[in-house]
Amino acid sequence: MSENTATHEATTTGSWVTAGRAARELGLKPSEFDLAVDLGRIRAAPGGPESGRRVDRAELERIRTRPGHPESLRESVRTVGTTEGALLMGVTKDRFTRLARLGLLAPTRFHLNRHRAVVWLYLAEELREFTADERNTELLRGRTPDTLRGQFDTGLDLRARNWRTRRLAILLRRATDPWSRAGAFASLLEPLRVHEVVKDPYERSHLGRSCPERPSHGAPGSPGAVLTEALVTAQDPDEIAWLQAELVGLLAEARAHRPAPRPASAPHRPTPVGRVPRTPTRPRGAFRSLLARWRGGNRGPAVRGAAARGEAVRGPAVRGAVARPSAARRSTRSTRSTRSGWTAR
Description:
By secondary structure, the chain is mainly alpha-helical. 51% of the residues lie in helices and 5% in strands. The protein has 19 helices and five strands. The chain starts with 15 loop residues before the first strand and ends in an 8-residue tail after the last helix.
């Protein structure tokens, strides 16, 4: 089994320890431990509703015997903000922000500061990999290609979208059956969008129980909570269409695996899920390749030589969004209207 698998079934007879105990024994803060599990650096098993994640003693020993432990593990999950990230890459804050908004740097975490500004955090390891790649020299040191500059001037900002795609990869890695995989996709959609493709109320109810908990900030209905909800929910039309189409297919698998429970008195009539237009604009391949990278171990978002030449970006940025500035501009306007008073850093 790959070392990048975030969860696994017990394969040893060793004892298990709680996440908190494992973090202390590995010399990690709780937030660092959670990120290490999400990124596949530590193999953990899901516990019960009250126990949380568990780690096998054998896994702790495996990590502790690695060269450079614990510094190497801690460094592999170190996150930096815009200011520190720009210093690490040797660029200005403005250039760093431009690269992130264009989707060339993908955030791994975010939080809101006391001014309700979104603070994006990036893996230092990925930034170093990006900087060391000679194909990115022009993007870091030269003039921004006209194509990318034009996309940036339209207001394109793919940071939230890239964060959602990375989160989806994490949720799919945690999933244990077709229903939980379907729940991972549904968790990124507004309830109304889920209702459009899941017509059966019993299936919707069961799917809702399979959805992972969404990140939140502040009390429900507060400005911080509303902003966070907007960030963790798909906004772009092609992103929504792709998630809905994948949800349709996964529901068919889940239904075949185990039908949703329903009262004995309820008639069991196969209810087709709603139709989702399959248009050529749905960037299926781009999403799949990105998910494969973040699920399989190639954690650093790579930028092809095309980006340096000013062509459409093929990296962590979703190809459909980058290639259509007009669509991104419409999405940005609609998003901003629901997020008045916030800025991103």
